[in-house]
């Protein structure tokens, strides 16, 4: 299974195509819209989120609430397009007429300068439109389909915020999956620790007032994945590696950790590895979960715990220095609008990209064209490993 997205931030629409999903999976647009709505929420976002109301249109691959086995095509319209039609239209410009408002000033921390040089664009808008994190809405649509498949297999995935601007949420290892979902949904910063959440909001307001931006850490928590998904035999079949790649590919993400992550460098082995135990009802399990659900590129059957770090938003009201690509003169980057902090929204994006990798890993292990057969195969595998 794979997916592609297309579309520019201020263009007509975003499009997502998923290929390789089995037939007969129950799927409705409500599942997807719920995810899209969650991505739009979160304290710290700019004016654009007040313009957009992300709703999906399923344009192919689903009939009467079930997948057909054909590619799933999904469309999200950009409501902001109506303000950009003259700039973002696809028709050639009338001869002799110049494009209004070309962008010649690359913003530090963005794809602007590297992308313009690579593709030979003198108008940087040709780069920034696609490199914008608007594209993450299309990724969330793909992940929402994956989450639907996982939920049908009793695998639950949730993302939330662990840290913003150095304010750390307390670890809440005893919360159930339902509590994690409910609390993060209710929190304006998608945080499980109410007290830290309040401080995070203050920090966001403060950064905004100062014309600055702040970053943070998101966590994705997964329950129900059986042991042995992924593989140790090739670098590109290691599921933790794939998850790390897809998390690092989210706009502004700069690092990934599993379980205790970088803390492992500072501990002895006896304080890192998780001892193995067995019980008749449960089968094999680990007494602790410091490695976050992965050994040897495969799931251990313990909850998957993965963190991703997001840098502060690069577009700042407090301008950074850059150079105009036409005049070569220095300038201070000025802006019209931007998010001050998008870590809460990014936690939803991260949840969905992780979900996609998990669903993809399962489909590789149990390659069935019909969803009920996949479900049956997974149930039989679960029994097999419990009795192993
Ligand atoms: C949900 C989300 C919203 C974002 N909003 C903005 C924004 O309003 N302004 C901005 O400059 N960058 C924003 N970014 C980050 C940029 O898209 C990103 O830093 C840029 O594309 C460069 O990519 P890189 O940071 O991965 O190198 C956002 C990222 C995410 C995940
Ligand atoms: C549109 C979204 O995020 C955008 C991501 C983004 C960027 O540079 O990455 C810049 C902002 O867009 P604009 O320049 O139109 O204000 C954000 O609003 C979204 O998340 O749906």
UniProtKB/TrEMBL annotation:
GO molecular function: chorismate synthase activity
Keyword Amino-acid biosynthesis (UniProt): yes
Pathway: Metabolic intermediate biosynthesis; chorismate biosynthesis; chorismate from D-erythrose 4-phosphate and phosphoenolpyruvate: step 7/7
PANTHER family: CHORISMATE SYNTHASE (PTHR21085:SF0)
Cofactor note: Reduced FMN (FMNH(2)).
PROSITE patterns: CHORISMATE_SYNTHASE_1, CHORISMATE_SYNTHASE_2
Quaternary structure annotation from Swiss-Prot or TrEMBL: Homotetramer.
Recorded catalytic activity of this chain's protein: 5-O-(1-carboxyvinyl)-3-phosphoshikimate = chorismate + phosphate
Gene that encodes it: aroC
Entry keyword annotation includes Lyase: yes
Protein name: Chorismate synthase
Binding site for NADP(+): 39, 45
The protein's required cofactors: FMNH2
EC number of the protein: 4.2.3.5
Role played: This reaction introduces a second double bond into the aromatic ring system.
Provenance organism: Sediminibacillus dalangtanensis
Keywords: Amino-acid biosynthesis, Aromatic amino acid biosynthesis, FAD, Flavoprotein, FMN, Lyase, NADP
Pfam families: Chorismate_synt
Binding-site positions, FMN: 130-132, 251-252, 296, 311-315, 337
Family indicated by similarity: Belongs to the chorismate synthase family.
InterPro entries assigned to the protein according to its UniProt record, in alphabetical order: Chorismate_synth, Chorismate_synth_AroC_sf, Chorismate_synthase_CS
């Amino acid at each position: 299974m794979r997916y592609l997205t297309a579309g520019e931030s201020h263009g007509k629409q975003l499009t997502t195509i998923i290929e390789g999903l089995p037939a007969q999976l129950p799927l409705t647009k409500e599942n997807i819209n719920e995810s899209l709505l969650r991505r739009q929420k979160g304290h710290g976002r700019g004016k654009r989120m007040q313009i957009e109301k992300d709703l999906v249109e399923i344009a192919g691959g689903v009939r009467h609430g079930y997948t057909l086995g054909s590619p799933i095509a999904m469309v999200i319209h950009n409501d902001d397009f109506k303000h950009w039609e003259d700039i973002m239209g696809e028709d050639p410009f009338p001869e002799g007429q110049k494009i209004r408002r070309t962008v010649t000033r690359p913003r530090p921390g963005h794809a602007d300068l590297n992308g313009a040089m690579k593709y030979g664009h003198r108008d940087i808008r040709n780069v920034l439109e696609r490199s914008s994190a608007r594209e993450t809405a299309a990724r969330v649509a793909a992940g929402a389909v994956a989450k639907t498949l996982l939920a049908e297999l009793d695998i639950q995935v949730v993302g939330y915020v662990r840290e913003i601007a150095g304010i750390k949420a307390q670890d809440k290892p005893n919360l159930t999956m339902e509590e994690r979902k409910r609390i993060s949904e209710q929190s304006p910063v998608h945080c499980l620790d109410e007290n830290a959440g309040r401080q995070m909001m203050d920090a966001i307001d403060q950064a905004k007032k100062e014309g600055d931006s702040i970053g943070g850490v998101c966590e994705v928590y997964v329950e129900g994945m059986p042991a042995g998904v992924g593989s140790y035999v090739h670098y590109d079949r290691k599921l933790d590696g794939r998850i790390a790649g897809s998390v690092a590919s989210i706009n502004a993400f700069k690092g990934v950790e599993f379980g205790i992550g970088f803390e492992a460098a500072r501990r002895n082995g006896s304080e890192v590895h998780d001892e193995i135990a067995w019980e008749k009802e449960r089968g094999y399990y680990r007494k602790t979960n410091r490695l976050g659900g992965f050994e040897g590129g495969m799931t251990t059957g313990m909850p998957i715990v993965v963190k991703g770090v997001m840098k502060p938003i690069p577009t700042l009201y407090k301008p950074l220095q850059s150079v105009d690509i036409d005049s070569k003169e220095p300038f201070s980057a000025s802006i019209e609008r931007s998010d001050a902090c998008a870590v809460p929204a990014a936690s939803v994006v991260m949840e969905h990209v992780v979900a996609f990798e998990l669903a993809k890993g399962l489909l590789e292990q149990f390659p069935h064209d019909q969803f009920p057969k996949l479900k049956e195969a997974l149930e039989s595998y679960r029994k097999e490993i419990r009795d192993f």
